[in-house]
Structure prediction request, 106 residues.
Amino acid sequence: MGSETLSTLSQQTRGSTDDLGALVKQLVVAAQPLEGKFNGQGKAAFDHFKQNSDEIASSLNKALSAILGGQQGMDKAFVTGEHESADNARQAMGSANFDAARFSGR
Prediction:
């Protein structure tokens, strides 16, 4: 996995969060012509969805926000681990005796 993978994923998720709420609202508007066509349980389900569309959009946005928070946490941990690994490698190289590994006839 590349060092930019999680930050790219977070950016895409952030954009999807905004899009998803808007799509739910667009669905309600697009379904307006169907409003008088349902009877019985279909009508009740349609009315329930329409009445709760803001709550549905909000719940979906909250769920995606939680996913985004997790992605950002993973990104921070990954970047921190990458930096620590590089620092440890530099420290180990600094204390290594490279002259002892030479095979010259000195």
